Amino acid sequence: MLLIPCPWCGPRPEGEFVCAGEVLPPRPADPNAVSDAEWVDYVVMRRNVRGVHDERWWHVRGCGSWLTLRRDTVTHRIEPAEDA
Predict the structure, then answer these.
(1) Interacting residues of 70 by C-beta distance below 8 A, sequence separation 6+
(2) 17, pLDDT greater than 90
(3) Cα-atom radius of gyration of the chain, to the nearest Å?
(4) Domain covering 3-24+34-83, topology
């Protein structure tokens, strides 16, 4: 089990959180201006990196805040959270 460092509640067990996946690039300002292929890439495709990447987590069974964490997918090492 991961211990996730919530900036408001302190280190908490992973079971209190819901992972929303990797941090995505900004949504296109005008979705009608992008091609279907570009829209599919934005909505569906994820990098699924092996190593360090940023993830969004919701502290659903705690303070209710959204966090951005930097986690290594190989070692599961987590760097301090930032508020979202």
Answers:
(1) 52, 53, 54, 55, 78, 79
(2) yes
(3) 15
(4) Folate-binding fold (3.30.2270)
Maximum distance among all alpha carbons in the chain?
44
**Boundaries of every domain in the chain:** 3-24+34-83
1-79-52 Cα angle (round to 5) = 85
Residue whose C-alpha is closest to residue 22's, from 54, 58, 45: 54
Whether the CB-CB separation of 21 and 29 falls below 8 Å is answered with no
> What does residue 15 show for φ and ψ, rounded to 5 degrees?
-60, -15
**In 10 A of CB 3, how many CB atoms?**
12
Type of residue at 55: E
pLDDT tens digits, residue range 28-57? 889 889 999 999 988 888 888 899 989 999
